[in-house]
Protein backbone atom coordinates (compact mmCIF):
# COMPACT_ATOMS: atom_id res chain seq x y z
CA UNK A 1 0.00 0.00 0.00
CA UNK A 2 1.33 3.42 -0.87
CA UNK A 3 2.63 5.34 2.09
CA UNK A 4 2.86 8.79 0.52
CA UNK A 5 1.91 10.78 -2.54
CA UNK A 6 5.32 10.02 -4.01
CA UNK A 7 4.59 6.31 -4.07
CA UNK A 8 1.20 6.68 -5.65
CA UNK A 9 2.36 6.53 -9.22
CA UNK A 10 -1.22 6.29 -10.36
CA UNK A 11 -1.68 9.78 -8.90
CA UNK A 12 0.92 11.25 -11.17
CA UNK A 13 -0.33 13.38 -14.03
CA UNK A 14 0.72 12.69 -17.61
CA UNK A 15 3.68 15.01 -18.25
CA UNK A 16 4.28 16.35 -21.74
CA UNK A 17 5.89 19.22 -23.63
CA UNK A 18 4.51 21.26 -26.52
CA UNK A 19 6.43 23.56 -28.83
CA UNK A 20 5.35 26.74 -30.59
CA UNK A 21 7.61 27.61 -33.52
CA UNK A 22 6.69 31.02 -34.93
CA UNK A 23 8.06 32.31 -38.22
CA UNK A 24 7.36 34.89 -40.91
CA UNK A 25 6.28 33.28 -44.16
CA UNK A 26 4.79 34.93 -47.23
CA UNK A 27 4.04 38.09 -45.30
CA UNK A 28 2.26 36.36 -42.41
CA UNK A 29 3.10 35.28 -38.91
CA UNK A 30 2.79 31.50 -38.97
CA UNK A 31 3.10 28.61 -36.54
CA UNK A 32 4.55 25.20 -37.32
CA UNK A 33 2.01 22.38 -36.94
CA UNK A 34 2.09 18.71 -37.71
CA UNK A 35 -0.62 16.21 -38.52
CA UNK A 36 -1.11 13.68 -35.74
CA UNK A 37 -0.70 10.06 -36.78
CA UNK A 38 -2.19 8.50 -33.67
CA UNK A 39 -5.10 8.85 -31.27
CA UNK A 40 -6.10 11.01 -29.58
CA UNK A 41 -6.93 13.52 -32.31
CA UNK A 42 -5.53 11.26 -35.09
CA UNK A 43 -5.45 13.25 -38.33
CA UNK A 44 -5.78 16.61 -36.59
CA UNK A 45 -3.21 19.40 -36.74
CA UNK A 46 -1.27 19.90 -33.52
CA UNK A 47 1.80 21.55 -32.13
CA UNK A 48 4.81 19.21 -32.08
CA UNK A 49 4.67 17.71 -28.60
CA UNK A 50 5.22 14.54 -26.69
CA UNK A 51 5.78 12.83 -23.39
CA UNK A 52 8.63 13.78 -21.14
CA UNK A 53 10.82 10.67 -20.90
CA UNK A 54 12.62 10.66 -17.55
CA UNK A 55 14.99 7.96 -18.80
CA UNK A 56 16.03 10.07 -21.76
CA UNK A 57 15.45 13.78 -21.08
CA UNK A 58 17.42 15.89 -18.64
CA UNK A 59 14.72 18.54 -18.41
CA UNK A 60 11.43 19.57 -19.97
CA UNK A 61 13.43 21.81 -22.30
CA UNK A 62 15.53 18.84 -23.45
CA UNK A 63 12.31 16.91 -24.04
CA UNK A 64 11.01 19.76 -26.20
CA UNK A 65 14.20 19.83 -28.28
CA UNK A 66 14.00 16.05 -28.73
CA UNK A 67 10.39 16.38 -29.90
CA UNK A 68 11.36 19.08 -32.40
CA UNK A 69 14.13 16.87 -33.77
CA UNK A 70 12.11 13.69 -34.00
CA UNK A 71 8.64 14.97 -34.88
CA UNK A 72 9.51 17.96 -37.05
CA UNK A 73 13.06 17.21 -38.20
CA UNK A 74 14.31 20.50 -36.78
CA UNK A 75 17.76 21.32 -35.39
CA UNK A 76 18.23 22.67 -31.86
CA UNK A 77 16.75 26.16 -31.64
CA UNK A 78 16.88 28.63 -28.81
CA UNK A 79 13.59 27.94 -27.03
CA UNK A 80 12.08 29.55 -23.95
CA UNK A 81 9.28 28.56 -21.64
CA UNK A 82 5.94 30.04 -22.59
CA UNK A 83 3.75 28.65 -19.80
CA UNK A 84 2.59 25.37 -18.34
CA UNK A 85 -0.91 24.05 -19.03
CA UNK A 86 -2.60 21.54 -16.76
CA UNK A 87 -5.88 19.94 -15.77
CA UNK A 88 -8.13 16.92 -16.10
CA UNK A 89 -9.76 17.87 -19.41
CA UNK A 90 -7.04 19.06 -21.79
CA UNK A 91 -5.91 15.55 -22.77
CA UNK A 92 -8.42 12.68 -23.13
CA UNK A 93 -5.78 10.26 -21.81
CA UNK A 94 -6.02 11.75 -18.33
CA UNK A 95 -4.99 14.54 -16.00
CA UNK A 96 -2.06 16.13 -17.75
CA UNK A 97 0.52 18.82 -17.39
CA UNK A 98 2.31 20.23 -20.41
CA UNK A 99 5.20 22.66 -20.45
CA UNK A 100 4.94 24.80 -23.58
CA UNK A 101 8.05 26.27 -25.20
CA UNK A 102 8.31 29.08 -27.71
CA UNK A 103 10.87 29.80 -30.44
CA UNK A 104 11.06 32.57 -33.02
CA UNK A 105 12.71 31.11 -36.09
CA UNK A 106 13.69 32.74 -39.39
CA UNK A 107 11.89 31.08 -42.31
CA UNK A 108 15.19 30.18 -43.97
CA UNK A 109 16.02 27.89 -41.05
CA UNK A 110 12.89 25.83 -41.79
CA UNK A 111 13.84 24.78 -45.32
CA UNK A 112 12.43 21.34 -45.96
CA UNK A 113 9.26 20.75 -44.01
CA UNK A 114 8.41 17.08 -43.63
CA UNK A 115 5.30 15.85 -45.41
CA UNK A 116 3.06 15.96 -42.36
CA UNK A 117 4.41 19.33 -41.19
CA UNK A 118 2.94 22.66 -42.25
CA UNK A 119 2.99 26.38 -41.47
CA UNK A 120 -0.40 27.80 -40.48
CA UNK A 121 -1.15 31.54 -40.31
CA UNK A 122 -1.82 32.45 -36.68
CA UNK A 123 -4.67 34.71 -37.78
CA UNK A 124 -7.23 32.20 -39.00
CA UNK A 125 -5.72 29.14 -37.38
CA UNK A 126 -7.36 25.77 -38.16
CA UNK A 127 -8.76 23.77 -35.24
CA UNK A 128 -5.84 22.26 -33.37
CA UNK A 129 -5.76 19.17 -31.13
CA UNK A 130 -5.87 19.42 -27.32
CA UNK A 131 -5.71 23.04 -26.06
CA UNK A 132 -3.09 23.87 -28.68
CA UNK A 133 -5.18 26.70 -30.12
CA UNK A 134 -5.04 28.44 -26.76
CA UNK A 135 -1.30 27.82 -26.47
CA UNK A 136 -0.71 29.43 -29.87
CA UNK A 137 -2.86 32.42 -28.90
CA UNK A 138 -0.83 32.85 -25.71
CA UNK A 139 2.42 32.66 -27.68
CA UNK A 140 1.27 35.28 -30.17
CA UNK A 141 0.08 37.54 -27.33
CA UNK A 142 3.49 37.21 -25.70
CA UNK A 143 5.27 38.13 -28.92
CA UNK A 144 2.90 41.02 -29.69
CA UNK A 145 3.12 42.30 -26.12
CA UNK A 146 6.89 42.31 -26.07
CA UNK A 147 7.56 43.01 -29.73
CA UNK A 148 6.80 46.70 -29.61
CA UNK A 149 9.45 47.31 -26.95
CA UNK A 150 12.18 44.95 -28.05
CA UNK A 151 14.18 43.65 -30.96
CA UNK A 152 12.19 40.40 -30.86
CA UNK A 153 10.58 40.73 -34.30
CA UNK A 154 14.09 40.76 -35.81
CA UNK A 155 14.55 37.22 -34.52
CA UNK A 156 12.07 36.19 -37.21
CA UNK A 157 14.34 37.51 -39.98
CA UNK A 158 17.46 36.03 -41.58
CA UNK A 159 20.76 37.15 -40.08
CA UNK A 160 21.02 40.16 -42.40
CA UNK A 161 18.06 42.19 -43.57
CA UNK A 162 17.14 45.55 -45.08
CA UNK A 163 15.40 48.28 -43.10
CA UNK A 164 12.13 47.80 -45.04
CA UNK A 165 12.27 44.07 -44.24
CA UNK A 166 12.74 44.85 -40.55
CA UNK A 167 9.91 47.35 -40.61
CA UNK A 168 7.66 44.81 -42.30
CA UNK A 169 8.50 42.23 -39.59
CA UNK A 170 7.41 44.70 -36.91
CA UNK A 171 4.25 45.51 -38.84
CA UNK A 172 3.33 41.84 -39.19
CA UNK A 173 4.07 41.08 -35.55
CA UNK A 174 2.24 44.14 -34.25
CA UNK A 175 -0.52 43.97 -36.85
CA UNK A 176 -0.21 47.70 -37.47
CA UNK A 177 1.25 50.16 -39.97
CA UNK A 178 4.50 51.87 -38.90
CA UNK A 179 5.81 55.21 -40.19
CA UNK A 180 9.01 54.51 -42.14
CA UNK A 181 11.06 57.56 -41.17
CA UNK A 182 10.38 57.44 -37.44
CA UNK A 183 10.96 53.68 -37.47
CA UNK A 184 14.33 54.16 -39.18
CA UNK A 185 15.35 56.82 -36.65
CA UNK A 186 14.21 54.74 -33.69
CA UNK A 187 15.99 51.48 -34.54
CA UNK A 188 19.20 53.33 -35.42
CA UNK A 189 19.03 55.49 -32.25
CA UNK A 190 18.56 52.43 -30.08
CA UNK A 191 21.80 50.83 -31.34
CA UNK A 192 19.68 47.81 -32.05
CA UNK A 193 21.05 47.18 -35.54
CA UNK A 194 24.28 47.87 -37.40
CA UNK A 195 25.27 47.87 -41.06
CA UNK A 196 26.83 44.66 -42.29
CA UNK A 197 28.77 46.63 -44.91
CA UNK A 198 26.99 44.74 -47.68
CA UNK A 199 24.03 45.60 -49.84
CA UNK A 200 21.09 43.53 -50.99
CA UNK A 201 22.20 41.42 -53.97
CA UNK A 202 20.35 41.00 -57.22
CA UNK A 203 18.34 44.18 -57.14
CA UNK A 204 18.40 47.27 -59.31
CA UNK A 205 20.22 50.60 -59.26
CA UNK A 206 20.09 51.50 -55.58
CA UNK A 207 20.43 48.27 -53.61
CA UNK A 208 19.32 48.64 -50.00
CA UNK A 209 21.92 48.38 -47.25
CA UNK A 210 21.93 45.20 -45.22
CA UNK A 211 21.78 45.34 -41.44
CA UNK A 212 22.16 42.84 -38.62
CA UNK A 213 21.30 42.93 -34.92
CA UNK A 214 24.04 44.32 -32.67
CA UNK A 215 25.48 42.04 -30.01
CA UNK A 216 23.57 43.93 -27.33
CA UNK A 217 20.27 43.52 -29.18
CA UNK A 218 20.99 39.84 -29.68
CA UNK A 219 21.39 39.38 -25.94
CA UNK A 220 18.36 41.49 -25.17
CA UNK A 221 16.43 39.37 -27.62
CA UNK A 222 16.80 36.46 -25.26
CA UNK A 223 14.12 37.99 -23.10
CA UNK A 224 11.30 36.33 -24.91
CA UNK A 225 10.58 34.40 -21.74
CA UNK A 226 9.18 35.71 -18.56
CA UNK A 227 12.17 36.22 -16.34
CA UNK B 1 3.02 -4.79 -21.19
CA UNK B 2 2.77 -1.08 -21.82
CA UNK B 3 1.92 -0.20 -25.41
CA UNK B 4 2.75 3.50 -25.33
CA UNK B 5 4.36 6.19 -23.25
CA UNK B 6 0.95 7.01 -21.80
CA UNK B 7 0.66 3.56 -20.27
CA UNK B 8 4.11 3.59 -18.77
CA UNK B 9 3.12 5.13 -15.49
CA UNK B 10 6.54 4.43 -14.13
CA UNK B 11 7.87 6.78 -16.80
CA UNK B 12 5.88 9.65 -15.46
CA UNK B 13 7.81 12.34 -13.58
CA UNK B 14 6.81 13.39 -10.08
CA UNK B 15 4.60 16.46 -10.56
CA UNK B 16 4.57 19.15 -7.90
CA UNK B 17 3.88 22.85 -7.35
CA UNK B 18 5.89 25.41 -5.39
CA UNK B 19 4.78 28.85 -4.25
CA UNK B 20 6.76 32.05 -3.80
CA UNK B 21 4.97 34.55 -1.54
CA UNK B 22 6.82 37.87 -1.53
CA UNK B 23 6.02 40.63 0.94
CA UNK B 24 7.51 43.77 2.48
CA UNK B 25 8.30 43.29 6.15
CA UNK B 26 10.34 45.54 8.43
CA UNK B 27 11.80 47.39 5.47
CA UNK B 28 12.90 44.30 3.57
CA UNK B 29 11.61 42.21 0.70
CA UNK B 30 10.91 38.81 2.22
CA UNK B 31 9.72 35.40 1.09
CA UNK B 32 7.47 33.07 3.03
CA UNK B 33 9.16 29.77 3.91
CA UNK B 34 8.13 26.82 6.03
CA UNK B 35 10.13 24.22 7.87
CA UNK B 36 9.78 20.78 6.32
CA UNK B 37 8.47 18.09 8.63
CA UNK B 38 9.35 15.11 6.46
CA UNK B 39 12.12 13.73 4.28
CA UNK B 40 13.57 14.71 1.97
CA UNK B 41 15.16 17.77 3.55
CA UNK B 42 13.36 17.24 6.89
CA UNK B 43 13.98 20.26 9.11
CA UNK B 44 15.10 22.47 6.24
CA UNK B 45 13.38 25.67 5.15
CA UNK B 46 11.48 25.37 1.89
CA UNK B 47 8.88 27.11 -0.19
CA UNK B 48 5.37 25.82 0.50
CA UNK B 49 4.91 23.12 -2.12
CA UNK B 50 3.45 19.72 -2.70
CA UNK B 51 2.27 17.07 -5.10
CA UNK B 52 -0.34 17.79 -7.69
CA UNK B 53 -3.29 15.54 -6.84
CA UNK B 54 -5.20 14.71 -9.99
CA UNK B 55 -8.12 13.43 -7.94
CA UNK B 56 -8.41 16.70 -6.08
CA UNK B 57 -6.92 19.56 -8.10
CA UNK B 58 -8.40 21.02 -11.27
CA UNK B 59 -5.09 22.55 -12.36
CA UNK B 60 -1.57 23.20 -11.14
CA UNK B 61 -2.79 26.61 -9.97
CA UNK B 62 -5.52 24.98 -7.88
CA UNK B 63 -2.90 22.66 -6.41
CA UNK B 64 -0.79 25.68 -5.46
CA UNK B 65 -3.72 27.38 -3.75
CA UNK B 66 -4.50 24.15 -1.86
CA UNK B 67 -0.87 23.94 -0.72
CA UNK B 68 -0.97 27.56 0.50
CA UNK B 69 -4.15 26.86 2.45
CA UNK B 70 -3.03 23.60 4.00
CA UNK B 71 0.71 24.15 4.51
CA UNK B 72 0.77 27.86 5.31
CA UNK B 73 -2.79 28.56 6.45
CA UNK B 74 -3.20 31.27 3.83
CA UNK B 75 -6.38 32.37 2.04
CA UNK B 76 -6.66 32.33 -1.77
CA UNK B 77 -4.33 34.95 -3.22
CA UNK B 78 -3.95 36.07 -6.80
CA UNK B 79 -1.06 33.91 -7.99
CA UNK B 80 0.66 33.74 -11.35
CA UNK B 81 2.97 31.24 -12.96
CA UNK B 82 6.62 32.04 -12.47
CA UNK B 83 8.23 29.15 -14.38
CA UNK B 84 8.40 25.37 -14.40
CA UNK B 85 11.46 23.55 -13.07
CA UNK B 86 12.30 20.01 -14.10
CA UNK B 87 14.97 17.35 -14.22
CA UNK B 88 16.35 14.21 -12.63
CA UNK B 89 18.35 15.91 -9.86
CA UNK B 90 16.19 18.60 -8.28
CA UNK B 91 14.22 16.18 -6.08
CA UNK B 92 15.90 13.12 -4.50
CA UNK B 93 12.65 11.16 -4.92
CA UNK B 94 13.11 11.05 -8.69
CA UNK B 95 12.71 12.90 -11.98
CA UNK B 96 10.40 15.75 -11.14
CA UNK B 97 8.60 18.68 -12.64
CA UNK B 98 7.42 21.56 -10.49
CA UNK B 99 5.28 24.48 -11.56
CA UNK B 100 6.26 27.52 -9.48
CA UNK B 101 3.74 30.26 -8.73
CA UNK B 102 4.36 33.80 -7.51
CA UNK B 103 2.24 36.14 -5.41
CA UNK B 104 2.92 39.66 -4.11
CA UNK B 105 1.10 39.98 -0.81
CA UNK B 106 0.77 42.96 1.55
CA UNK B 107 2.21 42.11 4.96
CA UNK B 108 -1.11 42.85 6.67
CA UNK B 109 -2.69 39.92 4.82
CA UNK B 110 -0.18 37.56 6.46
CA UNK B 111 -1.16 38.22 10.06
CA UNK B 112 -0.69 35.07 12.07
CA UNK B 113 2.10 32.96 10.66
CA UNK B 114 1.94 29.34 11.77
CA UNK B 115 4.70 28.11 14.05
CA UNK B 116 6.73 26.44 11.31
CA UNK B 117 6.25 29.33 8.88
CA UNK B 118 8.60 32.30 8.65
CA UNK B 119 9.50 35.30 6.49
CA UNK B 120 13.08 35.28 5.23
CA UNK B 121 14.79 38.31 3.66
CA UNK B 122 15.47 37.55 0.00
CA UNK B 123 18.87 39.22 0.30
CA UNK B 124 20.75 36.81 2.52
CA UNK B 125 18.41 33.87 2.15
CA UNK B 126 19.12 30.76 4.25
CA UNK B 127 19.79 27.50 2.40
CA UNK B 128 16.49 26.21 1.09
CA UNK B 129 15.48 22.63 0.22
CA UNK B 130 15.46 21.36 -3.38
CA UNK B 131 16.18 24.11 -5.94
CA UNK B 132 14.02 26.55 -4.00
CA UNK B 133 16.86 29.06 -3.65
CA UNK B 134 17.00 29.34 -7.42
CA UNK B 135 13.22 29.66 -7.65
CA UNK B 136 13.26 32.56 -5.17
CA UNK B 137 16.07 34.26 -7.10
CA UNK B 138 14.06 33.94 -10.32
CA UNK B 139 10.98 35.39 -8.60
CA UNK B 140 12.92 38.38 -7.26
CA UNK B 141 14.51 38.95 -10.67
CA UNK B 142 11.05 38.93 -12.24
CA UNK B 143 9.75 41.46 -9.71
CA UNK B 144 12.84 43.68 -10.00
CA UNK B 145 12.79 43.50 -13.79
CA UNK B 146 9.14 44.48 -14.05
CA UNK B 147 8.89 46.68 -10.97
CA UNK B 148 10.58 49.70 -12.45
CA UNK B 149 8.06 49.91 -15.27
CA UNK B 150 4.86 49.00 -13.50
CA UNK B 151 2.74 49.48 -10.43
CA UNK B 152 3.79 46.05 -9.17
CA UNK B 153 5.61 47.23 -6.03
CA UNK B 154 2.33 48.78 -4.86
CA UNK B 155 0.88 45.26 -4.71
CA UNK B 156 3.13 44.73 -1.70
CA UNK B 157 1.44 47.56 0.23
CA UNK B 158 -1.87 47.69 2.09
CA UNK B 159 -4.83 48.99 0.09
CA UNK B 160 -4.15 52.60 1.08
CA UNK B 161 -0.71 54.09 1.54
CA UNK B 162 1.16 57.37 1.70
CA UNK B 163 3.45 58.58 -1.07
CA UNK B 164 6.56 58.03 1.09
CA UNK B 165 5.41 54.46 1.76
CA UNK B 166 4.95 53.87 -1.97
CA UNK B 167 8.36 55.35 -2.71
CA UNK B 168 9.93 53.13 -0.05
CA UNK B 169 8.28 50.03 -1.63
CA UNK B 170 9.85 50.91 -4.99
CA UNK B 171 13.21 51.52 -3.35
CA UNK B 172 13.14 48.18 -1.57
CA UNK B 173 12.04 46.28 -4.67
CA UNK B 174 14.53 48.00 -6.95
CA UNK B 175 17.29 48.12 -4.33
CA UNK B 176 18.01 51.73 -5.19
CA UNK B 177 17.40 55.26 -3.90
CA UNK B 178 14.68 57.24 -5.71
CA UNK B 179 14.40 61.03 -5.88
CA UNK B 180 11.24 62.01 -3.99
CA UNK B 181 10.02 64.90 -6.15
CA UNK B 182 10.44 63.18 -9.50
CA UNK B 183 8.88 60.02 -8.07
CA UNK B 184 5.86 61.99 -6.88
CA UNK B 185 5.45 63.62 -10.27
CA UNK B 186 5.82 60.37 -12.15
CA UNK B 187 3.28 58.28 -10.22
CA UNK B 188 0.74 61.12 -10.29
CA UNK B 189 1.31 61.76 -14.02
CA UNK B 190 0.82 58.09 -14.82
CA UNK B 191 -2.65 58.04 -13.23
CA UNK B 192 -1.38 55.07 -11.30
CA UNK B 193 -2.68 56.22 -7.93
CA UNK B 194 -5.51 58.40 -6.66
CA UNK B 195 -6.27 60.06 -3.32
CA UNK B 196 -8.56 58.11 -1.04
CA UNK B 197 -9.76 61.35 0.52
CA UNK B 198 -8.40 60.26 3.88
CA UNK B 199 -5.22 61.07 5.72
CA UNK B 200 -2.90 58.89 7.71
CA UNK B 201 -4.37 58.44 11.20
CA UNK B 202 -2.52 58.76 14.47
CA UNK B 203 0.24 61.04 13.32
CA UNK B 204 1.12 64.62 14.14
CA UNK B 205 0.21 68.04 12.76
CA UNK B 206 0.42 67.43 9.02
CA UNK B 207 -0.88 63.92 8.39
CA UNK B 208 0.13 62.58 4.95
CA UNK B 209 -2.59 61.99 2.37
CA UNK B 210 -3.54 58.40 1.70
CA UNK B 211 -3.56 57.03 -1.83
CA UNK B 212 -4.74 53.85 -3.49
CA UNK B 213 -4.09 52.28 -6.88
CA UNK B 214 -6.46 53.40 -9.63
CA UNK B 215 -8.61 50.76 -11.30
CA UNK B 216 -6.40 50.89 -14.39
CA UNK B 217 -3.24 50.32 -12.36
CA UNK B 218 -4.90 47.46 -10.53
CA UNK B 219 -5.61 45.73 -13.82
CA UNK B 220 -2.17 46.49 -15.16
CA UNK B 221 -0.75 45.03 -11.99
CA UNK B 222 -2.00 41.66 -13.08
CA UNK B 223 0.86 41.46 -15.50
CA UNK B 224 3.23 39.92 -13.05
CA UNK B 225 3.24 36.82 -15.23
CA UNK B 226 4.81 36.38 -18.55
CA UNK B 227 2.07 37.06 -21.03
Automatic annotation (TrEMBL), chains A, B:
CDD domains: NUDIX_NadM_like
Domain Nudix hydrolase: 12-142
SUPFAM superfamilies according to UniProt: Nudix, Winged helix' DNA-binding domain
Signal peptide coordinates: none
Keywords: Hydrolase
Protein's UniProt keywords contain Hydrolase: yes
InterPro entries given in the database record: NUDIX_hydrolase-like_dom_sf, NUDIX_hydrolase_dom, WH-like_DNA-bd_sf, WH_DNA-bd_sf, WHD_NrtR
A single MF term (Gene Ontology): hydrolase activity
Name of protein: NUDIX hydrolase
Species of origin: Defluviimonas salinarum
